[in-house]
Each structure stands twice: as structure tokens, then as C-alpha cells.
Write a structure and sequence with these properties.
The protein is mainly α. Helix 7 packs across helix 8 and helix 8 packs antiparallel against helix 9. The longest helix has 26 residues. It is elongated, with a radius of gyration of 20 Å. The mean pLDDT is 90.
Length: 213
Amino acid sequence: MNTEQLIESLSRDVPRVSPHAVARRIGYGLYGGGIVAAALVVSMLGVRPDLAAALDDFSFWTKVIYTLSVGIVAVVAVGRLARPTPTSLRALWLLAVPVLVLAGICIGELADKPPQEWLALWLGRSWRACPWILLALAMPMLLGLFWAFKQFAPGKMRAAGAAAGLASGAWAAAIYCLHCPESSALFILTWYTLGMVLSMTVGALLGPRLMRW
């Protein structure tokens, strides 16, 4: 039996895999974890009572768009790192776009306020708790993505874990917007981003252990 015949015999009974199988499984992991995170926000933290009014507020949508933008780019990275040989990760430079846009909003915000108010803009009322709450809310989604990766064969498990952590942290931050009353762009850029980085770090540390195949 030559090589071509061997390959043909080995592949003859292999079931066909949907080209969307990776994206679908990643979606299942994020969706399941997201439901848990949303339930935690509603049951333990509570939805902010002025949410209807906040929907007309520019600062609310600044938070939502920032977190979702980071989350979408991170999910793209997760999909590419799920393979034994990752495809191009050049799209990761897009992560700089929401950060730079939000930084620009921060500059305008600071220019509009006297210096004595800058510290309050930066710390808000919940700076001590915010990053840790985001990390806790990210864990169900991170575990969901680790579950998804068990069916993949990632070649760079630490990088894949970091991407999964960043995606989980960003989507957790988007869900947290249902509760968080903070409105300062400087607060969001600092403490929301720190929460995402903490989740990314946990993902990078746990990924090689929990995604082995």
C-alpha cells in the first residue's frame, strides 16, 4: 500500500465536520457563561434603577461600545488560536482602536473639568471593587471557553488562554454595564481595562492546564 492509498483508507470513514464547528462551539461556551454572568448581575448586584434613562446617555454607550469592541476582536483571536497552527493574528491591532478612541474621550473629559475634579473622575465610587467584580463575572465565560477548547487542538495554549480570558473579561464588562453607575470615561479606561487584563492573565495561567488535548 502506497502513501496515497493509506491516506485514502484512513480518511474514508471520517465524518464531515461543519466549517462553522469552531465558531459554533465557541459561541456555546460564551453564551452559556454569559447567561450565568448575567444572572449573577441581576440576582446579586441588581440592575441599575435608572437604566432606562441611562440608555439616552452618551457615557453609557461609551462603556458598552468599548467593551463590546474589545470582546469582538478577542473572540476573533480565540477562533484563530483554536487551531493547531494559528491563522494570522494581524487583526489584533484593532484592539488599539477602542483604547485610543476612549483615551481621546478621556482627554476631552479632563479638559472640560477643573483639575480638582480629576481624581473623582478617575476613582469614581467603586474603583476598589470594579476590576475584581469583572474578574468574577468573567469566570463562567472563561470556563465555557475552556470547555470549548477541549474539543480543539490549540497549538499555542498560553496565547489561546490569554485570548479566551480577554474575551471573557470584555463580555463580562459589557454585562456589568447593566449594574455599573459609573459614567467617567477615565474610570472605564482604567478600571474596566484592568478587570479585562486580570481575566486575560488568569486565562494565560490556566490555559495550558485546562485546554490540554
